[in-house]
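Thread: Modeling a multi-component assembly for a lab meeting

Hi all, long-time lurker, first post. My supervisor asked me to bring a structural picture of a complex we are working on to next week's group meeting, and I have zero experience with this. I have the sequence lines for every component (468 residues in total). Could someone generate the structure of the whole assembly? Inputs are pasted exactly as I received them:
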Amino acid sequence: MNRKPPCADTRERILATAEGLFMERGYAATSLRMITAKARVNLAAVHYHFGSKEALIREVFERRLGPLNAARIAHLDRLEAQSRGRAPSVEQVIEAIVAPALQVNRDPLAGGADFLRLLGRAFSEPGQTMREILPAQYRQVVVRFKEALARALPGVPDQELTWRMHFMFGALSYTMAGNDALKLVATCNLEGADDPESIIRRLVPFLAAGLRAPLPGRSEVAGGRGAMNGRKAA
Amino acid sequence: MNRKPPCADTRERILATAEGLFMERGYAATSLRMITAKARVNLAAVHYHFGSKEALIREVFERRLGPLNAARIAHLDRLEAQSRGRAPSVEQVIEAIVAPALQVNRDPLAGGADFLRLLGRAFSEPGQTMREILPAQYRQVVVRFKEALARALPGVPDQELTWRMHFMFGALSYTMAGNDALKLVATCNLEGADDPESIIRRLVPFLAAGLRAPLPGRSEVAGGRGAMNGRKAA
DNA sequence: CCATCATTCAAACGTTTGTTTGAATCGCCT
DNA sequence: AGGCGATTCAAACAAACGTTTGAATGATGG
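Re: Modeling a multi-component assembly
Sure thing. I ran the full set together rather than chain by chain. Output:
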């Protein structure tokens, strides 16, 4: 089966190196020669093992995103099994999305911070490739978590919930990708920027409050001057 | 002064075409030949008018982002002048960020939706260029709006507010860039996705509620099962 | 021990990339 | 008219790109 010439981890080293380079330079700006040089691998090896550059990035994503989203759904399953009858809270549902990502961050073998930053960028990256990979990988997650959030937020209409989930994924992917963008606008030193757990501890309440926000009025954009704390409208 | 050969709008046509192509294909994946061909302009014209490809994208951003952020600060100035003594509300401050972008969206001469989507992607795009352009263009905006939000949210500590602004910019830029990413995860048809005003009407309450969220506890991530509507903690 | 197969390797393939060049073109001012 | 300066243009540049090829390599199974 496995013929093992001097180094048989060629495949793995290509994937790991490509992951890092795609993260810090982007897909289009990363050449196969950069990857193979840094991985100390022959240029032709990438075509031998993957077939093309596009097939390579496809595999870089699928091997990470599959387990991550599976862990999210498993977390949600566990949550709904524990609390029989009663629906899990908004915070718990959000944590089921965020905690698996946090675990990936901690585990370099699962991709570590590199993959999370790459993933955060993938959503806003153009090109046909990502528009094929991401929907396939996320469809099930979106359906399941929207159901769970709908149960936790019975007062929020379907359309409104869809939008708020969209905003939530925005803040989430931006935060995951953001170690760079963060410093762009940071006037003061962000302490704890290197500690993902403290970021999560701040992000979850933010998102939960946003999801529970009072429903927007029919016409005007801004609430009155005195618009005060989140009081559910309906 | 202005010698006007048959077409003197060469510069402008390059900028407009580059804006559109960078938006839909990304910076690295857009070649000068694509731009000059679509703009019906000679290839060498871009080097004559701008000097290099990087200088071109730099100008694409600066001519749009400058006025946009200036309008945001002007909006905030007007807001603070009107309400003497009392601090503007969170919703009003958020609207000062969002409304000028909405106006850009409506006005094709100011860049239109193309530039907003390009801008939304710019934050998560790698490369040294963006890490030089964006901080310079946004520094003043961040400082001013953080001051305004701090006055509107006296209970939120400085560190916490910085993070929440980060989350806010995330949801905002993701939403602006998102007409593509939107369809990625949308299981049901998002009505109003083409109407920016209705998006804003949903986004502002979401962000305001997130900014006003109860402060996170010291240790645990998720609130209790019964964690209910936004009650300010401190 | 030789044949076999998966893997590695150096070299080259034809395109496309950003950039440069030098001559042609055109409106303006004296 | 005529020369000037700004602009356009076709052509070429070297470099880098993704991809392909065909021979070397080395462990495995008959």
